[in-house]
Amino acid sequence: MDSSEEPWASSTTPSSRPASQKSKKSQQSARSSRSARSGPSARSTEETPLLARVDGSDDEEEADAQTPATTSLLPSLTGSSGGKTPLWKKRWPSILALVILCITAALIMLGFLASEGIEEYAMQAADFKPTKLSLDSLTKHGVKVQVEGDFTMDASKVKKTSVRNIGRFGTWIAREAETGATDVDVYLPEYGNILVGTAKVPAIKVSIRNGHTTHVSFFADLEPGSFDGIRNIANDWIEGRLGQIRVKGKAEVPLKSGLIRLGKQYIEESLVFKGNDLPSLPRYDITKLNLREAMDGNKGMGADVSLVVENDFPVQLTVPPVSVDVLVGGCQPADQHIMVGTAETAQLNVEPKTDLEVNVTGHVEKLPDSLTATCPDSTKSPLDWLLGNYMQGEDATIYINCCKFPDPATPDWARDLLKDITVPVPFAGRDMGNLIKNFTLADVHFDLPDYFAEPGTPEAAPRVSAMIKVVIALPDEMNFPIDVDSVLADADVFYKKRKLGILKVPKQKANSTRVEARGKEGPLLLVESYIKEAPIEITDDDLFTEVVSALLFGGKSVMLDIKAAVSVGVESPIGKFVVREIPAEGVVPVKLRDPGLATSRTKANVNGLAIGHGNGDNGSPSVGALSPKVGNLSIIGTSPTSITLKAYVNVTNPTNYSATVPYFNINILVNGTILGQATARDVSIHPGNNTNIVVTAIWDPFTNSGAKGKAIGKELLSQYVSRYNTSLTLQTHRGTIPAQPALGSLLSKFPITFQTPSLSTPKKPSEDDPEDPDDPDDPDQDKDEGSHFIREATMHLISSTAQFTLSSPFSTTTLYITNLNATAYHDGQPSGKILYELPFAVPPGLSDTPRLPVDWSLGSVGYDAIKKALGGTLKLSAFADVGIRIGAWKEQIWFQGGAIGAHVRL
Known about the structure:
It contains 14 helices and 45 strands. By secondary structure, it is an alpha+beta fold. The strands form 5 sheets. Strands 19, 20, 22, 23, 24, 25, 26, 29, 30, 31, 32, 33, 34 and 35 form a 14-stranded mixed β-sheet that branches.
């Protein structure tokens, strides 16, 4: 180096030179020394020795020019001491070792940076948290996305201490790392190593020092790989067959740190995603659902749906308008899905980690036949399963077949990639249990089974016919016309939360009327259907007994709960179809037409036959609610032990329900002993009064109850003809309704006891006149005298005979008296005795007996009273043993009569 290159040469001036010559020589010597050192060093090369050689004269001159301070400093730097050997010459092995150690450390660090150690450190310490992923634009072959995130090196994540320490040291030295533009290919080894896609990533520069965070933002081009492979993976994931997935990425990444280029690093990494690591379909909430008629003159039905989709991902993109097909499952999971309609969405703008509001418009033109047809080995159709789950509050599943893009600017690759991908979408159900606002039965009619029906067969079940009226609260979202034209149901009937029986309603015609919303209430649908002969099966006999008891004798309504599976035929804008087994609930009140009838106590007359009402002699319930009345009694057949009678019965039905009874048989009892049966055939009962019901009764005490029954029957007849207060009990039995023995047994717990009706007998014309001249002096005459079997008597004193006028209760049957042993009394004193063994007839109506011989009780008070009444009348009483015969039937009874008007003649 020449003097002009010295940094201090131009700054030297004469005024700055010292006065002493020694100082000048020292400064010149110093400059010469520095110039000698600096000049050769500037022109040194790799061949220049590290230590420049100088001659001894220079050293001496320099030594002479040194100050004391300089003299003490130089030896320390040069390692010399006077004439001794320099220190550096003695320590050069240590210096050389230090240099080699530094070079070795540098090589180790660089080797680490390019070795598996730095790769292990980088893989474990590197942490990238994406903050934004946005779709910038669609390209011809893929999409351009913007990625933003935070890159941090966290050494605490490194497991090995040696790797962690060396990595921290190496990254502290390197400070930054930069990758060049890279193509990253992603493969799926388990799917034939198919290429999923390629990402073109630009150069990225980040700080790699521990704890430092670098915000990264770059654009990358993504190009999809095999469309078929991607669709296969998507379908496996959607259908739940993807338990785990292994993803392998390959790339050659050019690396450098500062000015040091580390070359291209070939990176191949595999990641396994299991269970919860796999992404799932985002959750959503339906905020609005409106079902309506199709607009703009189109056929079918439209739907407007608004939903909020949860977005937990840092994704920002713009989704173009999309059209999808809406499908439902078939009969079996393996069956092909059935297309129902289409749905469309407008353009959607997705913001990072912001819930997305989506508005969907759907259209259904017509339901396909495969949707409404019943499945094999089943009574339901795919539509039934779908609606049934939905209306029971269970999740229903619909399927979305993606995708069609109405916008022509959408690239072809997007159409090809997303076509034929079907996504199941759970559709939250709605519990429809409270939709039934009212459930009533009107004009109820019961049909009991026919006599010849076999027990246990469908023909043996009681049947009900009624007008069903159901008021349904329609959901607010149903804003389209709907008409129910048929109904079918299987209903369980409950009483006090216990199952009483089963009601099966066969398919019946129906009609419906929509009632628009009023106030806070939503729209209603009134469905009316007349069900005819729906069978009823009683499943709890004890509970049925409780219901009948509460109904007939409790005086209150009985509330029955109905839980039914209802199938309806529906006519809607999308056509006619049947929806089967819709759950429905309701309450049916069963009540008396007039509850007061259950406890009434009345007395009525029909054709002269009076029946008193009250509790029976055996404690059985009151018969007041039924008010039975018997008239027009006639005998239609006899046997040695029985009489068959025919009567017309009037009865009051206290309920609002009617019934048809093909056959009904009931026992007739006295004091718990069966004396006969009464049978009714082909009887129709309607609410209120029912008149002229033909009943046939067989009186046969001996056949039903043996000698005991015969004795009780004899006593009853004797008291009855003697006008005692007697009663009969009617009680059902297992044969009451032959096809329903259990029903007869149940009803037998409710015996009905009533007073025996008085027999109707004809009157003489004078008995209808209150001013009868034949009895002007008898104001106390018994007003019920016309109902006596013995209407009057005539006593002949001279011939000692008596003749009686008898009134037969039968209109067509002749009664025979086979023998008579009677005694007449006046004021309790005997007047005479009749003993007659010859039979005589008592024809229908009024008739006179033959003159019967009388053995007078001469001298008795009773005979004297008869003599005193000669030419007039006298009240007599009588007691007699009488043998009677009607056809082939015979019986011996006793008779006690009082207040018999007797005319006394000579």
